[in-house]
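User: Hi! I have a protein structure encoded as tokens and I'd like to know what sequence might fold into it. I'm fairly new to this, so please keep things simple.
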């Protein structure tokens, strides 16, 4: 499946808040559909499979990964020592596009992906244009020393809260550089999700 380019609020209404997917806020707190909100106040019953599928879709849409990519991360997390669900989230959080977003250089992960692919981002003073690049502790993330790059990041920093970065990251507001101090902890991941259900979804694959 190709990357999703449809209406984002429709996905948010169906799956819930996805901070990395969009910063838009919907006024309608019911799922999309031609019949509107359920007037009887009854919730549609979901099967166990449907509940696990929904959690998996939250992860996919929030981090902007394809089904093939996500399954690859699940397999990698299985071979690492620790809780598979937490390791899966940490692998996704350490993607370069997500680090750029979490540093406040971009309002959403799709915007951060565009910055990376267009060559605006440097890792340890080297240009990296691969959004899925896996960052490591002590890596330095900076902006290319070009006027256009600096202007783009400066505009985004005015929209995003560049000072409100998670504890595993440090950011220099003046130089627009960031440092990865450590692997992100589970409680520092803002996405409300049950990672155990995602592991169960892929348990038979």
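Assistant: Happy to help. Inverse folding works backwards from shape to sequence: for each of the 205 positions I chose a residue that suits the local structure. Here it is:
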């Amino acid at each position: 499946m190709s990357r999703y380019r449809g209406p984002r609020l429709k996905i948010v209404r169906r799956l819930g808040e996805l901070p990395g997917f969009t910063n838009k806020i919907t006024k309608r707190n019911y799922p999309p559909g031609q019949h509107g909100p359920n007037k009887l106040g009854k919730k549609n019953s979901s099967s166990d499979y449907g509940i696990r599928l929904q959690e998996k879709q939250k992860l996919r849409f929030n981090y902007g990964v394809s089904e093939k990519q996500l399954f690859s991360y699940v397999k990698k997390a299985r071979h690492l020592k620790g809780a598979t669900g937490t390791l899966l989230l940490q692998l996704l959080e350490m993607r370069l596009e997500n680090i750029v977003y979490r540093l406040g250089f971009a309002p959403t992960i799709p915007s951060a992906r565009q910055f990376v692919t267009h060559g605006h981002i440097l890792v340890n003073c080297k240009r990296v244009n691969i959004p899925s690049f896996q960052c490591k502790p002590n890596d330095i993330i900076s902006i290319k020393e070009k006027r256009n790059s600096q202007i783009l990041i400066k505009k985004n920093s005015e929209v995003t809260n560049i000072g409100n970065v998670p504890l595993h990251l440090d950011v220099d507001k003046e130089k627009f550089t960031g440092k990865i101090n450590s692997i992100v902890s589970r409680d520092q991941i803002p996405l409300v999700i049950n990672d155990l259900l995602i592991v169960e979804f892929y348990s038979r694959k």
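A useful reference point when you look it over: The beta strands are 121-123, 126-127, 140-143, 169-172, 177-180. Feel free to ask if any position seems puzzling.
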